[in-house]
Structures are given as C-alpha cells and as structure tokens.
Design brief:
Growth Hormone, Chain: A; 15 helices; globular; disordered N terminus
Length: 394
C-alpha cells in the first residue's frame, strides 16, 4: 500500500520551515565556528578538520540507526522531533567552551541531533509526494532550509560586533525553539505500515544491500565524498585571500544564497531529465570549485569561489537524496537513507581529515590535487553507471 500523497506539498513546506529556523540557528553559529576554533580556542587546521570530520561522522553513523529504527517502528515524526530538539538545545553551549575539546563535544551533540532526524525526515519527505515529484520536493525543502542558512550568517554579522561569540551562540536558541514548535503542531506522519513481515535490523540492511544499483550509486557517491572538503575550508581560504574576519560570515552567506537559489530548479531539472545526469553536473561543479580553491589570488575571488561551491552543494544535496528512493521500496527508505548517510559521513570524515592534513603539511596545491583526483574518478564512475543502466534498458 502506498503512502497518502500530499498534492499541495504542505508537509514538505512545513518541514522546510522547520529546517529554515533550524538552519538560521545553526548557521549563526557555524559561520563563526572555524574562526572561533582556530582563534580564541587555538586549534590548528588539522584539528579543525578533525573536529568537523569526526563530528560529521558521528552524526552520519547515527543516521543509519535512526533510519532503520523508523522503518521498524513504522513512524518517522518522533525521531525527527528528538533530533531537532537536541540540536536546538546543544548549540548555546559553545559559549561555555574553554578549549577545542569542549567545542568538539558540543559540535558532536549537534551533529548527533542532526543524525537522529535526517534519515526519517528524508523518508518522510519522499512519502509526502508522488514519485514523479520527489526531486522537486527535496529541492523545495533544501531551498527553504538554505534560506535560513542565508539569514543566519547575516544575523551573526549584525550581532557579533555587539555581543561577540558567546552572545551569538546563546541567541541561536531562539530560532531553534521556533523550529521545534512548528514540527510538533504542523508536520504530519505520512508513513503507511507495510504488510510485509518485519525483519531484524540486520535483515533490513541486507534487504537494502541486495539492491545492486543502489549499492553501485552509494559506492560512487562515497568515492566523490571522500574528497569533498567541508565549507569550513572555503571560509579559511577566504581568510587567506584577504577577506577580513568580520566579513567571512558574508562569504558564508554567499555560499548559502547560491545553495538556496539552485535547489528547487535543480530538483525540477532532475525530475525532467534524470537524477543521475544532474548529479554528474554537480560533481563537475565541485571540481571547478576545487580548481578555484587552488588558483584564486584575491579577496574578490573568494566570493566567486563561494558562488561556485554553493551551486555544487545545492545541486548535490538535493539530487543525491532524491535518487535514493528510485532504487528501493517505500517501506525500506529509512534504512536506505541510513545507509546513504553512513557512506557519505564516513567519506566526509576522510575528506576533512586528509584535506586539512595536506593543507597543513604541503599547502593548497596538494590538498586541491587530492580532491581533483577523487572527484574525477567519481564523475567517470557515474557516467559509466548511466551508460550501463541505459544499455540494459533500465
């Protein structure tokens, strides 16, 4: 039995508003966090990569368990609520951090909250609309999400001269709390229980891993992500290019603006011409952003870099999520999204650690070369995947 579809996208819109206020809260903090870690807390760039990579890995690992759990209990919303609540409550504690280890603990709590909510939320989005509109639904959600990510750095930019790091961190609780209220009262459960016999957690995972096309795509996405450096390194690069510390949050706002503007159009294009084709385009745009990381020589280039990187993020995050349900049954989507997130998270851990290490050890040429090689291999793999599936009539 198929879930009831929400023809006017109202569930997706409300989830988008939840993400809007959550990202407003988060990006107030994360636009300043690289400077907070490497400045007042004295962390090296390798430690910055460690904090970002391990925290993201924790969050992505939790997504696996959360996704499987949502399939087993046949409910999405309770886990989504727990995850958003934990993230909202944790970020103000950055104000109390006395060293990088304290900041790492808070960052990890926030990422665990994101991990708990993400797989069941993505499954809920895919269950709220007809299959032919899934990419558009994710594009709409990502655009609303990133609208908050645009405003967040601007709020931080306005507040920071008056309240400093601590004041911005404390204020992040306000929009985070609004997000939780919207989720409680306006988001509806859409999961329809399956008539199939429930499997064990391991059985769920084995069932999803039997989908060979999905597994092939996950391998390709993992290969790409193993070289896909975090936005923090774009902000650090902007600082190296001469952008003042007080203006770095505006570079971050440019990233998020590009991300927001491209999300929904990318989803519409993916629904029309094919999700895998549009995903290939996003990987090519990342490759271009990596070349810009290497060749940029002025503060003006930092803003161009931010635009290109934001376009890559906006397309990739929309289409990668949208392609997953194409290759798995509806009642197994929580598990599939959990596996997807575990693969991406493991790869991001490697990406941030290696990129940060190479940046400290040998500078930008070595770090950029690493990302250029991994993304080129992934693009070739994705083109090959499309060729094989077409030749087999799928």
């Amino acid at each position: 039995m198929e879930p009831k579809k929400d023809s006017d996208f109202s569930n997706v819109k409300h989830l988008g508003l939840v993400s809007f206020f959550t990202d407003l809260s988060s990006e107030m903090v994360f636009g300043l966090l690289p400077l907070f870690l490497t400045g007042p807390l004295g962390a090296s760039r390798t430690l910055l990569g460690l904090v970002e990579g391990v925290a993201e890995m924790l969050g992505y690992t939790v997504r696996m368990a959360s996704g499987v759990t949502s399939d087993r209990v046949q409910k999405r919303k309770p886990l989504v609520l727990i995850g958003y609540s934990l993230s909202a409550a944790s970020k103000p504690f950055f104000a109390l951090a006395g060293g990088w280890a304290d900041a790492f603990a808070v960052r990890s709590a926030d990422r665990v909250g994101k991990g708990i909510r993400t797989a069941p939320r993505d499954a809920l989005i895919s269950e709220s609309v007809p299959e032919a509109k899934v990419a558009r639904a994710f594009g709409l959600h990502r655009s609303l999400d990133q609208a908050g990510a645009i405003i967040g750095p601007l709020v931080a930019f306005a507040l920071f001269p008056f309240v400093g790091f601590a004041g911005v961190f404390y204020f992040s609780l306000v929009p985070g709390s609004i997000a939780v209220v919207i989720l409680i009262f306006f988001v509806k459960e859409k999961f329809v229980p399956s008539s199939e016999v429930k499997r064990s957690i391991a059985g769920n995972i084995r069932h999803v891993l039997a989908e060979k096309k999905l597994v092939a795509l996950l391998v390709i996405m993992g290969m790409f992500s193993v070289g896909a450096f975090n936005f923090s390194f774009v902000l650090i690069r902007a600082s190296d290019l001469g952008v003042a510390d007080s203006m770095v949050v505006l570079v971050y706002a440019v990233i998020n603006t590009a991300h927001t503007l491209i999300g929904y159009p990318a989803g519409m294009l993916a629904d029309r011409v094919g999700k895998e084709k549009v995903l290939s385009i996003s990987y090519g745009i990342f490759l271009a952003s990596t070349v810009l990381m290497l060749l940029s020589t002025s503060s003006a280039h930092a803003y161009l870099l931010a635009v290109v990187y934001g376009l890559y993020i906006g397309i990739a995050e929309t289409v990668q999520r949208a392609v997953v349900p194409k290759y798995v049954a509806s009642h197994m989507r929580g598990t599939a999204y959990g596996l997807y997130n575990m693969v991406i998270g493991s790869s991001f851990l490697v990406a941030n650690l290696v990129f940060g290490f190479l940046l400290d050890l040998s500078g930008m040429p070595a770090a950029a070369l690493y990302s250029i090689v991994t993304s080129t291999v992934a693009i070739a793999g994705l083109v090959g995947f499309q060729t094989l599936t077409r030749s087999r009539g799928s």
